[in-house]
Specification:
The protein is of the alpha/beta class. Helix content is about 40%, strand content about 15%. Helix 1 links the parallel strand 1 and strand 2.
Length: about 800
């Protein structure tokens, strides 16, 4: 389908939230769907009423018959005519709609004596319809010419302007002119006069553009906004007068109220006005914050709310703030209070005093924010709906997981989504996942036959987990789930319900074995051993009084899973041997399914194309930091927040000064551990989106996998090779894969990583040849589709003849 996203280009031009949204939508359509999209923009002036009406005229004359679908979001663009038109309303001209009464002007325009104006008023008294549009526009031009643009009727805003624009919008929105009505939020959908009476209006929440970050402790309060009246920043400044805690309020943004707000803040040293911030600076402020107060009045949406949630920060907002109240549930993912300084101050003091609550609310908000994706927006705008979760004649497998699977951010999530998704040719798969305290229950269709039902921990469960985290010194929520799952009875109930029509239950990691027993599921058990957990936890847990107790719990649950399973799936032969040795699992119940990648869907990039990509990528990074000016080669390590990954990255940071010509990029959750005190040629990117990650892997001269600990197989190994990135790895980094030194990759000891990098950089032709052989090798062995067939074949045998073999 050919899609036109049609929008006004403001004169003078500004790059605001709407412009970013339109470009993000077009990029998402072209990147993630089979459709093709283009943004079509016309200059739009609106300082006077004649200028605004000229914009409506220009869009009404636009011929877009060569597109299959037209999407508009803002006046006057929605005046365009097309048989398949979706209006995705960000807002109407608020000064002539819901904000008009603030001007103190009459709603009804007086009768005018001038015949040109009188005839136009009479025409506007009828029902808006496109068939009368040309006559309305002609009569308006005639009236302006006859009466002059300074006539009181053309005051903007004014009652006549209000009547005219309502008529034009009514003609554009008339039933029969629009195929689908969609709003940015329920707040927008429910506004007076925004949509025709009785129209069915969908809601599509824009996703945040900032990548998600791991939760981190905060220092104070931060907010970002344009500094004008409707944003009510004065409420926050006044609230600080009632905050006795020693916490700061940092305010980013510019606007006409800056001087007033600074005067209101007086000499309070806790309040800082930061001015305009770049996207990178904004992200760092979010990361450092304890919470984000955002208290506008009747906001259309409030993307700041979603941005804060991406950083796992609780949001304080007000009951009349509009859009933000749809994203924040009081006491669950933030605090919603009365729009009074005293009430806002009480919420700020509560979070400053109760960091456990702040952490829990922020974590819940982060998970909730994952619901808002471009895929959902596009599906709503195009009218495409999720395919049904269950399909006739398909046996069902229920998966028990201690973590959410979609969207996937780490290796374990990717394995669940891709490997279990590859089973859907034969089975329907329902994942029941445990998510942080406070998250609203969500059931999402990831793909045809692949459904995830998320269930939130209870507060009691979350507090117990936090207590164990503190005792252990690292997060141990997965272990805690093995002995505390009945503190979240809704999870056990959801697993029991999902298992009623299932043929087998699959454990993603061993820790939900207790939940399966609590749910009373008497089904064949499949244990997907991503690692040998008892060994992995022994390496990860710091020495201390909690270590022995937690290791005992891990050993007990892994033993129960391994010995009770009809099939144990491992990521490497080494893991299979260890499970057999520790728990007596016989070889005939073991199946090796290593981690893979969507190799056949991944474009191989080598030679001149890779070099050109590298030069562009380096140029952007060098612009950000002059100290990187001397770098001319690019290396990358991609990994999630996981202690073995952090240890591996430390090797890169340590050797970086010895290779000053190489810029080392750390991408993924692990890089949060390296935001300070790293060499100038090390760049911690944080969690990045799919597009950035793909661009990076298509650009690097060398990909790195310097693992020295951990279990299973490293999914990043196959991802690197699928993209054509020359790989330098330790022996452990290719554990579980049939890859050979010099044939496919360069294998070096962990303490000799620099020598391996030089081997690649000094002989690029040999590196390219290895990369080509590596890609061919993983394409025939480690594509997720092929691995899914391997697992599916074995499941058919385990479950009995005919089951899943349809």
């Amino acid at each position: 389908m050919k899609i036109a996203v049609v929008a006004p280009s403001p004169v003078p031009f500004v790059l605001g939230g709407a412009e970013r949204a339109w470009h993000g939508l077009v990029d998402a359509i072209n990147r993630a769907t089979p459709h093709d999209a283009e943004i079509i923009k016309l200059p739009s002036r609106e300082s006077t009423l004649p200028e605004l009406v000229a914009g409506y005229q220009a869009f009404s004359d636009l011929d877009l018959g060569h597109f299959d679908l037209v999407v508009t979001s803002k006046y006057p663009a929605w005046m365009v005519q097309h048989p398949n038109h979706t209006v995705y309303v960000f807002h109407r001209l608020r000064g002539l709609y819901d904000s008009y009464d603030l001007f103190g002007l009459p709603r009804q325009d007086p009768p005018y004596r001038e015949p040109q104006l009188a005839r136009l008023q009479a025409l506007l008294g009828g029902a808006p319809r496109r068939s009368a549009l040309d006559e309305v526009l002609d009569r308006f031009r005639t009236a302006v010419d006859a009466c002059g643009p300074d006539h009181p009727a053309f005051a903007f805003p004014g009652p006549f302007a209000r009547r005219l624009v309502h008529w034009l919008d009514g003609a554009a929105f008339a039933p029969g002119e629009v195929r689908r009505y969609v709003a940015l939020s329920r707040t927008v959908a429910e506004r007076e006069d925004y949509f025709p009476p009785g129209a069915r209006v969908g809601v599509a929440y824009l996703p945040a553009t900032f990548p998600e970050r791991e939760p981190a402790d905060g220092e104070g309060f931060f907010t970002a906004s344009r500094l004008d009246g409707p944003k009510r920043m004065d409420l926050l400044v006044r609230a600080m007068r009632h905050v006795s805690a020693d916490v700061t309020l940092r305010i980013a943004g510019t606007g006409p109220q800056l001087d007033t707000l600074q005067e209101l803040a007086g000499d309070d040293p806790r309040i800082t006005f930061l001015g305009h911030l770049s996207d990178d600076e904004l992200q760092e402020e979010y990361a450092r914050a304890l919470a984000v107060p955002f208290v506008p009045q009747a906001e259309d949406y409030g993307l700041i709310t979603l941005e804060a949630q991406r950083f796992a920060k609780p949001v304080i907002t007000c009951r009349d703030s509009g859009g933000p109240t749809e994203l924040v549930e009081h006491g669950i993912s933030g605090l919603v209070v009365d729009p009074r300084p005293e009430a806002i101050a009480a919420a700020m003091e509560q979070l400053a005093a109760d960091r456990v609550l702040a952490h829990a609310l922020g974590a819940a908000g982060q998970v909730a924010s994952r619901e808002h994706t471009w895929e959902r927006v596009i599906g709503t705008l195009t009218g495409e709906v999720d395919r049904p979760a269950r399909r006739a004649g398909r046996p069902k497998i229920v998966v028990a997981s201690t973590f959410p699977v979609h969207p996937a951010r780490g290796g374990g999530q990717l394995r669940c989504r891709e490997l279990y998704g590859a089973l859907t040719d034969r089975f329907d798969v329902e994942i029941v996942s445990l998510v942080p305290y406070g998250v609203r229950p969500v059931t999402q269709t990831i793909d045809a036959g692949l459904v995830e039902r998320q269930v939130a921990r209870t507060r009691r469960h979350a507090l117990l987990e936090l207590e164990e985290d503190r005792a252990a010194g690292i997060p141990v929520g997965d272990i805690v789930a093995s002995f505390a799952i009945e503190e979240t009875p809704a999870y056990v109930a959801a697993l029991r319900e999902a298992g009623r029509d299932a043929r087998a239950v699959l454990l993603a990691h061993p820790f939900m074995e207790a939940a399966v027993r609590a749910a009373g599921l008497e089904l064949p058990l499949v244990y997907d051993a991503h690692n040998v957990e008892a060994q992995l936890k022994a390496d990860m847990l710091p020495e201390g009084p909690a270590k022995a107790r937690l290791l005992e719990a891990t050993d007990a649950v892994e033993r129960a899973a391994a010995t009770g399973a009809a099939l144990v799936v491992t990521c490497s032969p080494t893991d299979g041997a260890l499970l057999g040795e520790r728990y007596g699992v016989p070889d005939e119940r073991l199946l090796e399914v290593p981690n893979g990648a969507p190799v056949r869907r991944t474009r191989f990039v080598s030679g001149a194309d890779r070099a050109a990509n590298r030069d562009r990528f380096l140029a952007r990074l060098r612009e950000e930091e002059p100290a990187r000016a001397g770098t001319r080669r690019l290396a990358a390590f991609v990994a999630s927040w996981h202690q073995p990954n952090i240890d591996a990255a430390r090797r890169i940071v340590a050797l970086a000064p010895s290779l000053p010509e190489v810029l080392f990029v750390l991408a993924g959750g692990h890089s949060k551990a390296f935001v300070h005190d790293v060499p100038a040629n090390v760049v911690p990117l944080g969690i990045v989106g799919d597009a950035t990650l793909t661009g990076l892997l298509r650009s690097v001269d060398v990909a790195l996998n310097p693992m020295g600990s951990g279990g299973g197989s490293n999914l990043k190994t196959v991802e690197y090779l699928a993209h054509g990135a020359p790989l330098v790895t330790t022996p452990l980094g290719i554990r579980g894969y049939d890859l050979a030194d010099e044939t496919h990759v360069v294998v070096v000891p962990a303490d000799d990583l620099a020598a391996g990098i030089r081997r690649v950089l000094d002989d690029p032709d040999a590196a390219a040849a290895r990369a080509a052989r590596g890609r061919a090798h993983v394409e025939t062995r480690y594509d997720w589709g092929m691995l899914g067939v391997r697992l599916g074949d074995r499941l058919v045998r385990v479950l009995g003849p005919g089951d899943g073999d349809r």
